[in-house]
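ok, trying the design again with the full structure, not the truncated one.
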């Protein structure tokens, strides 16, 4: 089940007391940069106004293996990751445009597995295109991979560039959601269209 462990009182809300009079909202988002050969992931936690990377990495499959086996392995690894990390929300990159049809199919299959794994865990799920993520985290929708990596260092206080770039992209997806979600909620609460 998505979300952090319940408190000793049994309360499953995503809040933890910081002081007897105040509660600090804890939001934990897992970003998935889908791919069949390399599927990047990164989890970011927000406490108050600060964000921190909790975990990041890449799930790989052997390009020489049969497609069904690669999909089975990726699905298994994604389920295990979500069970271990237990995010409040999962963000998967939406494939907006690909010139290579074969690559687009592989990315679409990986994205579908990530969406399914998140839904099976009962997580809130969001999707953003690469340009939406770059606009939110860098301020420029056509930012380079290096610019995204550098912004993740600055935003999350990382000691080095997250590598490979799939990890930076996954962290950026999580950061993007943490930035945009409050605005989306405000729009929805006021009955405005997104």
């Amino acid at each position: 089940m998505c979300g952090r462990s319940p408190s000793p009182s049994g309360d499953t809300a995503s809040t933890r007391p910081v002081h007897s009079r105040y509660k600090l909202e804890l939001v934990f988002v897992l970003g998935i940069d889908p791919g069949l050969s390399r599927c990047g992931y990164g989890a970011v936690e927000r406490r108050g106004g600060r964000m921190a990377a909790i975990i990041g990495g890449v799930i790989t499959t052997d390009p020489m293996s049969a497609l069904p086996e690669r999909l089975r392995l990726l699905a298994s690894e994604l389920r295990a990751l979500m069970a271990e990390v237990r995010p409040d929300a999962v963000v998967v990159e939406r494939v907006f445009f690909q010139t290579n049809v074969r690559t687009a199919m592989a990315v679409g299959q990986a994205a579908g597995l990530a969406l399914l794994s998140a839904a099976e865990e009962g997580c809130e799920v969001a999707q953003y295109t690469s340009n939406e993520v770059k606009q939110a985290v860098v301020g420029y929708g056509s930012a380079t991979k290096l610019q995204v990596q550098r912004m993740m260092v600055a935003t999350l206080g990382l000691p080095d560039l997250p590598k490979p770039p799939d990890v930076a992209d996954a962290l950026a997806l999580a950061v993007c959601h943490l930035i945009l979600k409050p605005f989306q909620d405000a729009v929805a609460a006021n009955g405005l269209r997104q």
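Keeping the full-length input from now on. The beta strands are 15-19, 22-33, 38-47, 50-60, 89-93, 124-128.
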